[in-house]
Amino acid sequence: MRFQVHPNIDSKEIKAFLSLMLPPEIDESRINLITKAFFRRFAPSDMLPSPFRKDLFLLAGANLTYYRLDIAGSNKIFHFGCYDLDDPTRSVRFSLSPDLDADILNSITKFTEFIKNELGQARQDASLAYS
Fold first, then answer.
1. How far apart are CA 63 and CA 75, in angstroms?
2. Contact call for residues 15 and 39 (beta carbons, < 8 A)
3. Do 41 and 3 touch, CB atoms closer than 8 A?
């Protein structure tokens, strides 16, 4: 799993921390290399390691209420259920497959946009039903 560095972490603070924690034999040039490697490894990314992220649903305006992973042989299907935070009576269910929906399941941005689109479609369907 890839973690993201908090944007407020200062490289000087990391260097100072490493200087205190590492043995004195490790000089400042090596600490600089370790610090650069740390920020390269844990830089913010749009990669989505797992679609089971309640925070992404909240960002999209939904609350995740249901999640199930079905595995049949080498095929995986992620099933989701959520409700609209603006109207908790409106719920949405959808399924995504890593084979067919890889572009959505690999990107945080595309995944949240997909959730927003599903909610928008549910809102539209509801408004047509009341017309």
1. 27
2. no
3. no
Token pair for 61: 């305006």
Strands (E), the chain: 62-72, 75-84, 91-96
91 in Cβ contact with 65 (< 8 Å): yes
pLDDT (tens digit per residue) in 44-67: 666 666 777 888 899 999 999 999
41 contacts: CB under 8 Å, gap ≥ 6:
none
CA distance 51 to 83: 17
pLDDT in tens, 71-100: 988 888 999 999 999 988 888 999 999 989
How far, in Å, CA of 111 to CA of 94, rounded?
A: 12
Give the contacts of 56 (CB within 8 A, at least 6 positions apart). 48, 108, 111, 112, 115
**Is pTM, for the whole model, over 0.90?**
no
Q: What angle do CA 105, 52, 60 make, to 5 degrees?
A: 75
* C-alpha triplet 13, 19, 25: angle, nearest 5°: 160
